Fold these 2 entries.
Entry 1:
Amino acid sequence: MTAPVISAQNLSLTFETNDGPVHALKDVTLAVEKGDFVSFIGPSGCGKTTFLRCMADLEQPTGGEITVNGVSPEEARRARAYGYVFQAAGLYPWRTIGGNIRLPLEIMGYGRSDQDARVQRVLDLVELAGFEKKFPWQLSGGMQQRASIARALAFDADILLMDEPFGALDEIVRDHLNEQLLQLWDKTNKTICFVTHSIPEAVYLSTKIVVMSPRPGRITDVIESPLPRQRPLDIRDTPEFIEIAHRVRDGLRAGHGDG
Ligand SMILES: Nc1ncnc2c1ncn2[C@@H]1O[C@H](COP(=O)(O)OP(=O)(O)OP(=O)(O)O)[C@@H](O)[C@H]1O
């Protein structure tokens, strides 16, 4: 067996605030394997974003251990092990779509022709070929979110950390992006950690669904999905899908009950 891509052992993070300590994460233990698509679902404040930020070295845990690709999050960050996609697309309005995707490559010192090739490749991957010279405001919200995914993919990181990337989009656009994201995951075999509030989104996308509950933020259930890798959208009407969705809902309810 290969080592997990992300391994958390009794991970805890307590924020000291003026109102006293906030236990954002408490004793979280989880292994994410290579090629997994893991969704984190739970009510507001259960620590989903904090967990993702620990993986990305944007927060420092106060207890336990976490490794990314077998090393510390800091070393993984320096090795550009992951791309991070935020809730809002976060594109610079004064740069074109191509310019936005190019920015991290410029910072990392890639040569100009390598930059060009990478920009074209990731624009193709997210089906935005031809939009390189447009500015963000000329694109719909869904297209902007795809551009921000392209930016996270541009330097070929094996891990994609996505914090509610489609939360602000309407349902039809979200369905379409979910489908595209699954195809992209299938093509590239990346490991994806994905935060969401939506049960159907979590069940549709994931190989593993991590249910969390707040106060203190912890994992209450980990569901290994029996669904096949290839998933047309209408898989959501099948009994298998509905059964998993029920289990997630039950887990969320139980978490609320003792919160
Ligand atoms: N920098 C901080 N300082 C103090 N408390 C914080 C900080 N960041 C997060 N928290 C608290 O930690 C808890 C977990 O927050 P987190 O953002 O990880 O939750 P979440 O599950 O991602 O929520 P949401 O679904 O609303 O995004 C919350 O109670 C939050 O208020």
Entry 2:
Amino acid sequence: MAYLIKGVSILGAAPTDLFIKDGVIAAPFEGAEVVDAGGLVALPGLVDVHTHLREPGREDAETVETGSRAAALGGYTAVCAMANTSPVADTAGVVEQVWRLGREAGLVDVQPIGAVTVGLAGKQMAELGAMASSAANVRIFSDDGFCVADPKLMRRALEYVKAFDGVIAQHAEEPRLTEGAQMHEGEVSTRLGLTGWPAVAEEAIIARDVLLAEHVGSRLHVCHVSTAGSVEVLRQAKARGVRVTAEVTPHHLLLTDELAAGYDPVFKVNPPLRTRKDVEALRQALLDGVIDVVATDHAPHAVQDKECEWAHARPGMLGLETALPIVLSIYGPQWELIADRMSRAPARIAGLAGHGGDLTVGSPANLTLVDPSARRVVDPSELASRSRNTPYAGMTLPGRIVATFLRGEATVLDGKAVK
Ligand SMILES: NC(=O)N[C@@H](CC(=O)O)C(=O)O
Ligand SMILES: [Zn+2]
């Protein structure tokens, strides 16, 4: 298909016409399908470096296809699929399977993340080289869900991925400090009588890992940063020139531990929701660039794993279909900031050429069109995800994703997935 996106504002600039043909942004031509984009803003397609798609193994919670559809509807053109599937994505075979399922769904580019250790068990390094040289071309490795707690193993993994410019994405949690943890350790956990996950359990691992990354001269990425103290560790590491990048989730930018008071497990997540002070520090860190990207940590869970007692519920919340509206609700129409933190920087970290582009003639047509003036009430029953565990149910959020294009093909039009 060839499209003329008429009267669109690219990153908030004066309205213009955008032509799409043969998968790229094209020079003006006749005969295109016209998309009326008056009042809409074009952004480079969003890129998520932290998505849980649950396939293989928990297809009742999400599949590569349903998660891809949720992503496209959220304005994404690429997502990185976390390795904590069943079986774990710790071999070339599994990452190639996920990659192939992504291609078949054809709604976003699904870039598999490989596990750092066999079975996420933290004991033995997985075959990182085989995953890197597989068809899935893996560059990000993570045991997410678990921390690579053994410092020697972490050091070896950081050294190993240097050979192919890979990166280790760490779920920073010192396990001895979070045994039995149910929420953030602080005033609220004391009041509720729930065992707390102290901020230092995250900060201590980040401090250790930036020193390890510095020592071996390798790349570290820190998943879902959640505390003000973590921001300070990262700020100092970056000032010294350590090759570290970091992500923050929409929920850690918006929600606080006070929400645990109702014991509704929809608010249970790892790392836990923190305090207002942490939220403020994370917001500022994203502005400053100390935190590089917004990542969803989209974590779909089946009803029986979420609608139960708090202590038994799985941690995690949906994110793909609400990420951009949440970010817009916090930062307003700062389109350059949004394009950088949600598209360009994540594409760079994941090594996804063709994503995070500048929408100039000749560049790949990976983009999304947003109506910033529309407001929508989040209705869990309307989500494309197979799961329903959104913490934003009933909230009115700004910004409607009207269309998304992957290599020039519409994946979303009129706010609906095309397949
Ligand atoms: N974030 C979560 O609370 N859960 C994630 C794992 C993770 O990202 O740590 C999941 O896989 O459900
Ligand atoms: Zn995690």
